[in-house]
Design brief:
- The protein is an alpha+beta fold.
- It folds into four domains: 7-102, Orthogonal Bundle (DNA polymerase, domain 1), CATH 1.10.150.110; 105-155, Orthogonal Bundle (DNA polymerase, domain 1); 164-320, Beta Polymerase, domain 2 (2-Layer Sandwich); 322-386, DNA polymerase, thumb domain (Beta Polymerase, domain 3, 2-Layer Sandwich), CATH 3.30.210.
- Helices cover 43% and strands 13% of the residues.
- A hairpin with a 4-residue loop joins strand 8 (349-351) and strand 9 (356-358).
- Bound molecules: adenosine-5'-triphosphate and manganese (II) ion (2 copies).
Length: 389
Amino acid sequence: PKPSGDPSAMQMKSYACQRRTPLKHHNSFLTEALEILSQNAEYNDNEGRSVAFRRAASVLKALPCRVKSMEDLRCLPCLGDHSQRVIKEILEDGSSREVESTRQSEQFQAMKALTGIFGVGVRTADRWFREGLRSPDDLIRTGQQLNRAQQAGVQYYNDLQKPVTKVEADVISDIVEKAVHSVLPGAEIQLMGGFRRGKEVGHDVDFLITHPEEGKEEGLMPKITNWLEEQGLLLYQKTTRNSYLEKMDGPARPPNNMDRFERCFSIFKLQTSAVRYKSNFTAPAEDVSTGRENEKPSERDSEESGWRAVRVDLVVSPYSQFAFATLGWTGSKLFERELRRWAGQEKNMSLSSHALYDSKQNLYLRAKTEEEIFAYLGLEFIPPSERNA
Ligand code: ATP
Ligand code: MN
Ligand code: MN
């Protein structure tokens, strides 16, 4: 590639898993706009359109410099007519009318607020929107039927809206490590998701847990959650047991990006004093329990109460699937999606967080490391920090 400031000088591959996408890039002024349109398409149950905008945004994230004119976009893949129109308008006028009116629209704002509640998906949010509901407060006010997850989602809404910092993630890592080692010495714990990709904040903290002796990890999750519960560290948890069977989940099964590991979606109660201590700002503060744990989120102040709620995902993987699980839980979501699309369309293989199946040879390919999986797929290895597609 020419060492110039011309974005079109580099050869841009068309699958996100063929490219390096750093966390910080030069085109947020365009990618944020395209991602609004992607999100809006998702709210309108138009997955194809949503992915198209997301792919377009992702290409711009991989560029070595800021886009200055439409000329710079020559030769770039994944930029459809609609995305190009939006980009052109932003380059010429500083903003796109479609993006701005979407951002301001009542539907977009309500869907964002409602799907932002833990336990609420697009379907439910859309139904509520059509019934005239706009916010978590509306749900409380009208006494909507909520399942257990949604109740927790509404109760801890304000805390869960606040980004989780890396320091908070590190404090939670220490807690998870202590819990896991108390119930299964020798187990291995790995930080996954956005924090593994080098993000400084996240919407949750993701962990993958395994044990080098295959079989030892079976039934581990209830032991971990019991330990955490006894310590008073859990505000909510829902554990799903492992339902993966190679025979059933093989190529005959329709592709589904939900994996089948034993997993736990949880909400931790994180002491803010522990976080201050870790970040070395001040000495650990007095640990005051205010006994006001059941208040509404809007009335709760984590500064005052001494703790905050944090979403934590725990996943347990058998050792033989650990490399696949690691690759599958590192993200980003688009990177994962593109990996699976590459495997299917270009390699006649089927990739999941459990295994890689080669349809031509009719066999499962074993791997101990992520590097081996990229090699099977005929892809250059992309480190986690450059999977921010
Ligand atoms: P954030 O910082 O916002 O949390 P993230 O990249 O960590 O960003 P997550 O939603 O926590 O996003 O997902 C982390 C990874 O776990 C993603 O790569 C995603 O593919 C994977 N993942 C999340 N939920 C599931 C699920 N139910 N089944 C399989 N994989 C999942
Ligand atoms: Mn995450
Ligand atoms: Mn997660």
